[in-house]
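Private note to self, pasted from the team thread so I don't lose it. Backbone tokens:
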């Protein structure tokens, strides 16, 4: 009886420790110092040394507008200030970047990423660094705690207004607030 009880206890402890190791393996994501929870959807994952995140959850926290065309697999992302528009297609590493210089004119460029958006468990997953930086955000990755820390363009602009940040210095939102 004691042997079976201690075996069951050891098995339970082993399972709980394994679960915590796998839970720690998922990267965490912060936008402007606030952690994003991914409860009922696909969690962020690392594939080929790139962190992929659920598209809508993260970009809407950055106040970007997101549109999805399921028939073509096209993602359209507009920055919060409507100056930048990104157009991406599932499994295509090219990102069309439109920078609006007026209401009627936008300069177009193509950014070729080393990672393409994918569908995973019915969720659109994007390589976050290239997309966030194209929207004017700063992205830092801490390998120790596997945390992607995004500082949006709006947060950097607000810090400039308050006189606590200039473009010539590195920026970390936690240093400011």
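Design output:
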């Amino acid at each position: 009886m004691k042997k079976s009880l201690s075996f069951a206890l050891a098995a339970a402890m082993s399972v709980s420790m394994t679960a915590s190791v796998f839970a720690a393996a998922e990267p965490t994501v912060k936008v402007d110092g606030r952690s994003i929870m991914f409860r009922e959807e696909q969690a962020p994952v690392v594939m080929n040394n790139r962190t992929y995140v659920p598209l809508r959850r993260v970009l809407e926290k950055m106040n970007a507008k997101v549109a999805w065309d399921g028939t073509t697999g096209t993602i359209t992302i507009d920055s919060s200030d409507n100056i930048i528009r990104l157009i991406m297609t599932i499994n295509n590493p090219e990102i069309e970047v439109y920078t609006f210089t007026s209401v009627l004119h936008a300069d177009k460029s193509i950014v070729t990423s080393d990672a393409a958006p994918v569908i995973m468990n019915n969720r659109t997953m994007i390589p976050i660094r290239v997309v966030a930086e194209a929207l004017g955000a700063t992205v830092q990755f801490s390998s120790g705690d596997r945390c992607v820390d995004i500082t949006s363009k709006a947060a950097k602009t607000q810090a400039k207004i308050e006189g606590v940040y200039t473009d010539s210095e590195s920026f970390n939102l936690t240093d400011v607030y």
